[in-house]
Amino acid sequence: MLDSDDVLRRLDAVESRAAIAELAFNYCHGFDKRDFDRFLGIWWEDCIWHIGPRFGSFSNHEGIREAVLDVLWPAWDQSQHLTSNLVIEFDGADRANVLCDVDCMGLLAGSTEATFVGATYADKVERREGIWKIAERTVSMHFFNTFPGTELSRPTA
């Protein structure tokens, strides 16, 4: 017979995993659809985002705003992120370490050639007052390449 405390801990872990996975999904939807409120909603106010040597590190919501509005969105005319291989390891009831791989295809500003980025996101997430958000994200880029002669275009009718 399962003890009720054990059942509650297991249920909390399942609900927490779902909420943490939504952070990865909302990152992609927020960034690619240029929905800044959705994107900002995944980060704690005191967050840190280490994007890497190509772009740098950004702190707090003001840093996220700068990274997205002043650096990244102006650099991309179009993007499509795909996340996979989500691994969540809890470090207590209210903290977890998360890894996911990301592939991003898109168009750099002013380009018609496909650009492909592969990376891993290593996150420290925290639950505060019942809500899970990212406290720190470190991006490890594996490649950032254009594919000359490969154009991205919308399908024609």
Word description of this protein:
By secondary structure, this protein is α+β, with helices and mostly antiparallel strands. The chain has a single domain, classed as Roll (Nuclear Transport Factor 2, Chain: A), CATH 3.10.450.50. It is 32% helix and 51% strand. The protein is built from 3 helices and 6 strands; from the N terminus they run H-H-E-E-H-E-E-E-E. A 6-stranded mixed beta sheet has the order 2-1-6-5-4-3, with helices on one face. Strand 4 and strand 5 form a beta hairpin. The protein is elongated. The mean pLDDT is 93.
Averaging pLDDT over every residue, what do you get?
93
Level of helix content? Answer: 25-40%
Order of helices and strands: HHEEHEEEE
Structurally, how many domains make up the residues? 1
- Provide the structure class: alpha+beta
CATH level 1 name: Alpha Beta
Gross geometry:
elongated
Q: What is the gist of this entry?
A:
The chain is an alpha+beta fold. Helix content is 32%, strand content 51%. The chain is elongated.
Question: Which features does this protein show?
Answer:
51% strand; 157 residues; alpha+beta; single chain
